[in-house]
Amino acid sequence: MSPVDARYQLRAAGTAPSMPTGLTSVYRGGIGTVMASDCEMLPSDSRYYDATSRNCGPMVALYRTSARLLLETEASFEWMPAALNRGRIRWLDVPPTCETSPLAVLPQWHAATLTPTSPATPAATPLPAPAPQTPEPLAAAEPASAACEPRQLARCQQLVTQVRTLLQGHRAFEAHVTATAGAAVCDCEGERLRYWDAHALRTLDDAATANALWRDLLTTSSDPLVASDARLAMAWSLYLSHDVQAADAIAAPLASAAQLRLRTWRHRRQSTAFRADVQQLPDATLQREATVLQQRIVVAQHSRRPWLAASLSALLPGAGQLYAGSYQGAAMSFLLNSVLIATTVEFARHDLYWAAGTSGLVASVFYIGGIINAADLASRENTRAASVPEATLTRMLLPELTP
Known about the structure:
mainly alpha, 3 domains
């Protein structure tokens, strides 16, 4: 991930520089300075706590930050994306926004089962649904392009190619800047540039702005092909955000073939529904390859069970991390909880009740943090294992979304 992409995601998550809380100001001004602390995570642990505290509250921030300290022991490409920051490789871990579930203390694997309504798309103001239409021939001339001079058209098409190349190279923010600047000066391919601009923003997890751009193209585009692609992309984005009702309404006017491909992709994690949809695809080779990829996705999604990792960690600190494949995290969780619990017991035996209470409070924070960390690690492992077959299936079923 490029540095500007990482900064964009962090700023969107609320980690912009601000006044630190009392706890983190003491750490930054005293302990961190004396120890010459140099966190490998992005943002740093203290900024992560500040952002999570603003988004979710101080107690949730305390538990999530303690879980993140355990995650830091396994900082690698296996668990999180890398970003270059101040000349060094840092490991990106975006703070939670706590907008999708009241159970924000739990990782995203739990919130996903609640199928929340996405905050990215307004629930009201439905789009005017045009009558179902037959697919437009791909070779249809674009009205805007036809009116352009050949030299200007070539320049604008070159800009579109440049934006798509940046997206292929995982440089989404640069693609966004290039597309925004190009759309301001290109009348020929301006709508196509805005289409890929929305893709860049969706890649940066800015679903609200991406959906707004696609929605604008639906109502203003003079090119039926761009409008159809924007409708498909917006429905795909809404399905990603679990806003099924809005996605179904957006996808309804699409051609039947496009609806079938989108519905097949949507059921990629539901074997029975996927088999019923994939059998309707006209290409036998596509049916066979899509079925193989879907089976790989289902296996990967269940390779680690987050609830089991959390339960194991609750029974024995470190056991959930061991199950998720984080051996250093397991050792750290076990030792940390053992030391803190033993310290609490020893203080209590000597009638040092205030010290025992303080030690027990710290122990409880790291105990709950270890449970959250175990579930989070299992979820990350499942996502990593499913990412390659899922990306391949998306390119196969929805080529309009491929740069």
